[in-house]
From TrEMBL:
Region annotation Disordered: where it falls in the sequence: 144-165
Superkingdom in the source lineage: Bacteria
Record protein name field: Uncharacterized protein
């Protein structure tokens, strides 16, 4: 999560949670109305309220006018639920696709930074792609300077061998 004033940031976990929440809501509708057949079937057919339409008789609701109003409501909301479910599935798909794009961009940026670090601090005998799959702790270990006394003695010996004296 980005800090205020630190620029733009995207919380990939929040995108995943939002997608999961929308898909869970669609699944809940699926369970409530016994649609079965998965999300696509539900959205395509707009089923689920038929049982209300069938039970909207004057005997079950107590009045002819109420029966007609309930039947009209169910007929219209069959389409409303259909579009609601379709929009929910589309929204979840869009959240998944957005998260995927950001993950790919993060991976590409990390690879670019790793390659720059390899050029400036890595083993010149190693392939340029060698660091692509290394984690940051490995890279830090390979690029961190060794300030130990042993390293200083070794460097001094190499200087004397190279330049004499």
């Amino acid at each position: 999560m980005a800090q205020p004033g630190a620029g733009f940031g995207v919380d990939l976990n929040a995108l995943a949670e939002a997608e999961r929440g929308v898909r869970d809501a669609v699944a809940e509708l699926n369970e409530m109305y016994g649609w079965g057949g998965g999300e696509a079937n539900v959205g395509a057919e707009g089923r689920g309220l038929e049982h209300l339409h069938e039970s909207a008789t004057p005997d079950t609701v107590g009045h002819d006018g109420l029966s007609g109003a309930l039947a009209l409501f169910v007929e219209k909301w069959t389409w409303g639920v259909k579009f609601l479910v379709e929009d929910g599935v589309d929204c979840a798909d869009a959240l998944r696709d957005t998260r995927s794009v950001y993950e790919k961009a993060d991976d590409a940026a990390a690879t670019a930074v790793k390659r720059v670090l390899h050029v400036f601090g890595g083993n010149p005998m190693e392939d340029a792609d060698a660091w692509d799959n290394k984690d940051w702790s490995q890279i830090r270990g390979e690029t961190a300077p060794d300030w130990s006394a042993e390293s200083a003695r070794h460097a001094e010996q190499q200087i004397h061998q190279t330049f004499g004296g």
